[in-house]
Amino acid sequence: AMPAHLSQQLRERILSWAIDDELSISDIANLAGCSKTTVYEVLRVYREYGQTQSPFVHPRGRHRALDTDDLNYILSLVETNPAVYLDEIQNQLLDIHNV
Fold first, then answer.
1. At residue 76, what are phi and psi to the nearest 5 degrees?
2. Cα gap 87→43, rounded to integer Å
């Protein structure tokens, strides 16, 4: 599986170093700050799928319980009343945003 710790931009640079600049795997690994195995994996995924990330990779972590609107609402509550209690915030979220 594709190492998830590499940014999209770094994956693209790895491909560019390999294809455009024809650098060695060792040189690319040194430039990217990753292992040779990771470089080989980036190249394999590109060869197999024609893109830098496998289409089967799922986002890491769990689904967020709060969206941006919810977080902005909480921020506005705290800015309006810095002494607000957590249970009051939770009740407001439930009443207004059904979260």
1. -65, -35
2. 50
The residues, any chain, with a CB within 8 Å of residue 5's CB and separated by 6 or more, are none
DSSP category for residue 20: T
Q: How many other CB atoms sit within 10 Å of the CB of residue 41?
A: 19
Name residues whose C-beta falls within 8 Å of residue 15's C-beta, 6 or more positions apart in sequence: 42, 43, 46, 52
Over residues 21-60, the pLDDT tens digits come to 999 999 999 999 999 999 999 999 999 999 988 888 776 6
CA 16, 18, 23, 29 dihedral sign is positive
Q: How far apart are CA 68 and CA 18, in angstroms?
A: 39
Which residue, 52, 6, 32, is CA-closest to 24?
32
> Are residues 45 and 56 in contact, defined by beta-carbon separation less than 8 angstroms?
no
**Whether this model's pTM surpasses 0.70:** no
Mean pLDDT computed over 60-80: 84
